[in-house]
């Protein structure tokens, strides 16, 4: 046929053959098509602080960032990132050599793995995991080795013996996420100490995704892995403005690490986006200097929303695993006599007018999360109330 070509090979690189449209795109399209409340994809339905939005407008009008910003990020933001790390955690980084600004945390993850992993290297990751982890490991030619967080006593827990057993002579790095998406687990001091000791003992690199660092609840505490003994010079820490300041569309993320690690990640990153978010970088620099009252108030408001949705989900009949961080709640649907979370989520918009995400897509072994469904609570109170009301139809 005219205009057609023939090839014996599929168009898509075989490393990405297992990856199709993300579950977030699929479920968000379902929400749009049905008019359902979207509690699947994790983005707020209100903007962040007005003064930070105005800071972006001011940067645009002043001509700051309208052309290519510096490759590592604008100096104002790099200095703000290092000041934040020092003030919050006592971690000292050189803003000129140990910070790299990225197009959100997703690019930081991709750049770090592309830079540090070679074909055949094993990457140990906690599952269920954010879907870009698997894709980035695949693009780097690595082999992912999952260590499964399993529910026990109302939350998901890490089996440290299983983690140790997963490390082999082929292991290149550990990919750690705390606070953890999608389970809401916040790794404890004891767990992080054990991870650090394992990394030092086996001479492993660690990439740690800490984008939810300011969203920890109850008595949980976020402890950067880079602050543990022996970890500063082997840890790539990933942060992001989107979750902390509710400007997810700006896509401003960053990497902090020692100079050689940042240099390696920058080498990969420069061939991805090169640079991005020029004016927004100046605004986020101001955001990181907001007083502690902002961060405390933001966390308290999200904890209240967590409790609001958790109560609604329990009233609807779900088993709820109370998260100690992030803005996601993982539930189990077996109380409804159902076990297939994907089918449940596909049907939920028609049944109740609510969209959620099946956790099974975040596992290498889908059976491990077959009955788990994730909801987000970073929405207005009236939206959460209405969603809870709709979901109560399941109980009847």
Structure description:
The protein has 396 residues and is α/β, with parallel strands linked by helices. It has 13 helices and 15 strands. The strands form four sheets. A seven-stranded mixed sheet has the order 2-10-9-8-7-3-4, sandwiched between helices. A four-stranded antiparallel sheet has the order 11-12-15-14. α1 (23-34) runs parallel beside α12. The longest helix is centred in the C-terminal third of the chain and has 25 residues, at 292-316. The protein is globular, with a radius of gyration of 21 Å. The N and C termini lie far apart (56 Å).
Short description:
This protein has helices spanning 23-34, 50-62, 75-89, 104-116, 131-140, 160-166, 189-202, 242-245, 259-269, 278-287, 292-316, 341-352, 381-391, and strands spanning 37-38, 99-103, 122-127, 143-148, 150-152, 155-157, 171-177, 205-209, 235-240, 252-256, 319-321, 328-332, 354-355, 357-358, 372-376. It contains 13 helices and 15 strands. By secondary structure, it is an alpha/beta fold.
What is the strand content? 15-25%
Structural class: alpha/beta
Please mark out the parts with pLDDT under 50 across 5 or more consecutive residues, or reply none: none
Order of H and E elements: HEHHEHEHEEEHEHEEHEHHHEEHEEEH
Which percent bin holds the helix content?
25-40%
Mean pLDDT: 95
Distance between the terminal alpha carbons, to the nearest Å? 56 Å
DSSP helical segment count:
13
* Biggest sheet layout: 7 strands, mixed
Number of strands: 15
Strand order of the largest sheet: 2-10-9-8-7-3-4
Q: Any idea what the shape is?
A: globular
In terms of quaternary structure, what is this?
single chain
Rg from alpha-carbon coordinates: 21 Å
């Amino acid at each position: 046929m005219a205009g057609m070509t023939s090839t014996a090979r599929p168009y898509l690189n075989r490393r990405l053959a297992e990856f199709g449209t993300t579950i977030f795109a699929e479920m968000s399209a379902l929400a749009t098509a049905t008019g359902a409340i979207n509690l699947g994809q994790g983005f707020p339905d209100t903007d962040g602080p007005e003064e930070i939005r105005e800071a972006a407008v001011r940067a645009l009008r002043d001509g700051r960032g309208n052309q290519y910003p510096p490759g590592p990020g604008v100096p104002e933001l790099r200095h703000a990132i290092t000041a934040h790390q020092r003030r919050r955690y006592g971690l000292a980084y050189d803003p000129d050599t140990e910070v790299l600004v990225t197009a959100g945390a997703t690019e930081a993850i991709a750049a770090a793995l592309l830079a540090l992993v070679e074909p055949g290297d094993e990457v140990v990751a906690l599952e269920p995991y954010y879907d870009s982890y698997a894709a980035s490991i695949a693009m780097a030619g690595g082999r992912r080795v999952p260590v499964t967080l399993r529910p026990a006593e109302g939350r998901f827990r890490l089996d440290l013996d299983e983690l140790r057993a997963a490390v082999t002579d082929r292991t290149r790095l550990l990919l750690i996420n705390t606070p953890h998406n999608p389970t809401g687990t916040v790794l404890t001091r004891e767990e992080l100490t054990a991870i650090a000791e394992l990394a030092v003992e086996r001479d492993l690199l660690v990439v740690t995704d800490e984008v939810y660092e300011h969203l920890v609840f109850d008595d949980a505490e976020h402890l950067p892995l880079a602050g543990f003994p022996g970890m500063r010079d082997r840890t790539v820490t990933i942060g992001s403005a989107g979750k902390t300041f509710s400007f997810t569309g700006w896509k401003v993320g960053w990497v902090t690490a020692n100079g050689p690690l940042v240099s390696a990640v920058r080498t990969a990153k420069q061939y991805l986006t090169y640079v991005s978010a020029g004016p927004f970088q100046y605004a986020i620099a101001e955001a990181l200097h907001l007083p502690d009252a902002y961060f405390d108030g933001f966390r308290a408001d999200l904890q209240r929303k967590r409790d609001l949705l958790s109560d609604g989900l329990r009233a609807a009949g779900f088993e709820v695993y109370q998260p100690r961080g992030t803005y996601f709640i993982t539930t189990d649907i077996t109380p409804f006599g159902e076990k297939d979370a994907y089918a449940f989520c596909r049907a939920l918009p028609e049944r109740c007018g609510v969209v959620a995400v099946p956790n099974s897509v975040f596992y290498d072994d889908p059976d491990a999360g077959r009955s788990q469904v994730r909801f987000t609570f970073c929405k207005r109170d009236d939206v959460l109330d209405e969603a809870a009301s709709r979901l109560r139809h399941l109980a009847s």
